[in-house]
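Structure tokens please, single chain.
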Amino acid sequence: MKGRKIAGVAAIAILSALVALFVYTRFLDEPVIDREEGAEGEVPAHFTNVFTVPQEGLVDFSEVAENIVHTVVHVKTKTIKDNYYQNPIMEFFYGEQYSRPREVRGYGSGVIVSSDGYIITNNHVIEGADEVDVTLNDNRTFHATVIGRDPSTDIALLKIDSKELPYVRYGDSDQLKLGQWVIAIGNPFNLTSTVTAGIVSAKGRSLGLLDSQYRIESFIQTDAALNVGNSGGALVNTSGQLVGITTAIISPSGTYAGNSFAIPVNIVKKVVEDLREYGEVQRAIIGVNITDVTSELAETTNIDEIKGVYVTDIVPGGAADEAGMKSGDVILKFDGKNTDTAAELQEQVSKKRPGDQVQVVVLRNKRRLDYDMVLRNIAGGLDVVTVGEDGGIIFGVRLEPLTLAERSEYRITNGMRVTRVQDGRFEDLGIREGYVIFEVNGKDVNSYEDIKEATKDGTELKSLKGLQSNGTYFSYQFRQ
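Here you go.
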């Protein structure tokens, strides 16, 4: 009797083992169960469709971070403000004349892009600075020269006197995909060499952050943590290639709140090449006013699909006008790339220079049309714009030609817009950024060379005519 019981138990054990083996082999390829503790000890289960990731497959940014951190620098600026601060106590003892200029310090980040010391940062980091210094990751500090600035993209190019520096290589921001891992490196709150990571949350974001009339905003949005001081830092992919320059956050508190934005490197690379070669960004212009296609616009204009960029107006004499485009056209492709939003179109145009020929695909009255177009500069010409040996500064201001649309708007045939003001004769006269100068010493001006010629290389100023930012005219006559 006892032997039969033992045999029965053994049979049950063997049968149980066979059942367990069958279940194991039967469900080997089924999803595993991921469990988490409930509020009161229960163990709710939910299915996932992946197996546990082996240890060696975990995402590891350490090698990339260790290499790239040496290519990111700390940018420090000093600005002397002309407005004097008041000290009532000192003025009581020494009179109202006691005052001194106010020194303002700023900081940000930068990225080394060549072994001989070229560094990219944001324009807003160094704009208006009287001195710019750069501290490398090895704590060496250099005075930096501003090679050029582009407010339209918020990019500035610096140069330090050093050799054999570590530098980051360019990637391709057009190849970025949503959900792809990216790494941000910068100096938030003056904390040097800070590394954060996140994913690409969106592409082609236009935020309305830049003030420039020709602003180009097509930001990469990520959830990598950025804060004050990260501006001008590196956004790299997991291969360690530069895919963006970190620029902005949107936050009710002024600090990181889950969204951060970077300028795509394909825009940055072209701007940097222009600043190095010409000292000025070569802005290509189509000659159109545009807006996104929305459901409301599609309904009122009888457009079948809500995609593309709607042309609201054509600038007479511009590239689009010469090619045969018309108001009401919807731009679907530019140079072979889809343009579903105005930001995407602006990004593609920003990679081109005046004189480049491109093909544009438009939708007109439900028909697709192809146009070959030769892009123009902001003055309506085909030539590149140079700034001259003295950096394009005359009487303390930098100027750029008016576009054809602006000339039509102001009802003038020529003129130059003031884009930068520093110490000099024009600042003393009250000339500000945004002013238009169309006549100097009785001569019409359309270019920097025209002004140099009219003023004998900036040595003679007899008269000046132009427009203020509010559209009112001004005129100066000077005694000789």
